[in-house]
Each structure stands twice: as C-alpha cells, then as structure tokens.
C-alpha cells in the first residue's frame, strides 16, 4: 500500500484577479519517491507547491501532511515548513543574507537550534551541495548555478522530510543541469521525498519515479514515466510531446534496428540497445 507524505483533496484556489489557479485538484505524493509535476506555464504547478508549504490556503478542499489535515495556526505551520522545504525557481527571491554561510544558517537558527547544531547542519548542507568553498562568498557575487545550489543547501540545512523544487533546472546550462539532477538523486537516496515541477518532458521522463500531468489548474493524468508517455491521448490532452529518446527508440524499432520492449530512460540506455542490437 502506498504511503503518501503530501496530499491535496479537491483543492480550489483563485487569485484576486479572478484567475482560477487550481480547480478541484486531488493527488498524493508518495513518501520517498521522486515525483515530477509536469505542465506548461500557467498549469498551476507553483500554486500547488505553495499550498503544500502552507503559504497559500485553499478556498475549498484540504491539504494533508503525513495523513494529517494542514491547519493554519502558527504552531502547525512552523512544523509543516520545517518538514516541507521549497526551493523557488528564481534563487534571487530566496537568498537575502550577506554571505553564503549566513544565508544557510538562517533557517536552522530560526528553528531554535544552537550555534553548534547550526554550524554542523550548515557544513553538512554545504558539503552535500558541493559549495563549501563558497562559505564566505557574498551571495550577490555568485553565478546563477551557484545560487541554485545555495538555495538547495538552504533547505537541506533545515533537514526536511520533503523537498519541493520549482523548475530547478530553469536557465541552467546542460552541465549544471546534469550536476543538479545528480545532486537530487543523492538527496533522494538518503530517504528524502522530492517533488519537482517542470515543463521539460525529457527531464521528467528520465528522472521521475512518478509523473503528474497538470493543465489549466487540473490534474489530467498520472502514472509511471513509461505509462504516461505511452499514452498518446493523454499527451494530446495535456499538450505534451513524447521525449526525444522515445521518438528515436520508436523509429529504430520500426526499421528493425533494435528489438525488445524495454523502453530506454536515458541516452546511455538507448545507446546500449543500439550497440547490442
């Protein structure tokens, strides 16, 4: 039986300008898994994430954390935000301290940890994200990729159960993207639940354990990467295309150049199929 760490039940939310951002959303995020919410800009991904952290409150419906209905009093929200950390799409909206060490230490100190405990948490987070050498660097002098890593370290230092990442690879070059995904795999291997939003079908297909498709504030489908991207009707409904790996795999099978029904998830898996054909 699946264990859900975060749930949305029939959630509706509308912005002040009348935009219906969420329209009866119901879904569950499985504990310990890598889940991707896939959808175009305006699908409601970021709005949903802000509900999971208690920043937004549903007009109707409810959010649950570890099976418990989210309440909006100070004590419950403090517990929720300690356990559900968000890394925002633009790190400049998240970073505000003078240097990297001060930036990452803010969260643990705000939770009431001692200076010794905070020091340990901060250095552990910096080591895991590979930014120890940036400890004394002013945050405004960091590269965009470095800022992304500091933003992730910010959340790691709080030691949450769930880490939510809104478009974590947006505006990153291919090498930085690969490094970021490798870092996220390492974090997930430690038992953390990861929830990531993107509109990149290639990233979603190669990285996720589970994919949720959103369009115009609604869930239009979900499943494993293989089942989601094998469903042409679902992809059309969501306005998505198949990942390039599956497009090439399909053409190669049509020509009889490779056999079998194993869908490759990565470039290397596709090359292996070609090599042994």
TrEMBL record:
Q: Tell me which residues make up the ABC transporter domain.
A: 6-241
A single GO molecular function term of this UniProt record: ATP binding
Indicate how the chain sits in the lipid bilayer.
Peripheral membrane protein
Name the Pfam families on file.
Answer: ABC_tran
- Give the InterPro entries listed for this entry: AAA+_ATPase, ABC_transporter-like_ATP-bd, ABC_transporter-like_CS, ABC_transpr_CbiO/EcfA_su, Co_trans_ATP-bd, ECF_ABC_transporter_ATP-bd, P-loop_NTPase
Q: Name one GO cellular component term.
A: ATP-binding cassette (ABC) transporter complex
Q: What is this protein called?
A: ABC transporter ATP-binding protein
Task: State the species of origin.
Answer: Calderihabitans maritimus
């Amino acid at each position: 039986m699946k264990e859900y760490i975060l749930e949305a039940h029939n959630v509706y939310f509308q912005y002040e300008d009348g935009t219906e951002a969420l329209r009866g959303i119901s879904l569950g995020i499985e504990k310990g898994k890598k889940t991707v919410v896939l959808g175009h800009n305006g699908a409601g991904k970021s709005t949903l994430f802000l509900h999971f952290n208690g920043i937004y409150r549903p007009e109707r419906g409810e959010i649950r954390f570890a099976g418990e209905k989210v309440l909006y009093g100070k004590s419950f929200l403090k517990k929720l935000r300690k356990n559900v950390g968000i890394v925002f799409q633009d790190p400049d909206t998240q970073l505000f301290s003078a240097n990297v060490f001060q930036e990452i230490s803010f969260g643990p100190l705000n939770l009431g940890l001692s200076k010794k405990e905070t020091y340990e948490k901060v250095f552990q987070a910096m080591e895991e994200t590979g930014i120890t050498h940036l400890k004394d660097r002013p945050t405004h002098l960091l590269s965009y990729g470095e800022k992304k890593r500091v933003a992730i370290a910010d959340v790691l230092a709080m030691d949450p159960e769930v880490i939510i990442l809104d478009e974590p690879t947006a505006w990153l070059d291919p090498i930085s993207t690969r490094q970021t995904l490798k870092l996220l795999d390492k974090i997930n291997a430690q038992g953390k639940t990861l929830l990531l939003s993107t509109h990149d079908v290639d990233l979603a297909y190669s990285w996720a354990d589970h994919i949720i498709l959103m369009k115009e504030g609604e869930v239009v489908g979900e499943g494993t990467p293989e089942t989601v991207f094998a469903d042409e009707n679902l992809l059309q409904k969501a306005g998505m295309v198949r990942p390039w790996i599956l497009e090439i795999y399909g053409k190669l099978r049509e020509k009889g150049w490779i056999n079998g029904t194993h869908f490759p998830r990565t470039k290397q898996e596709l090359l292996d199929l070609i090599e042994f054909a």
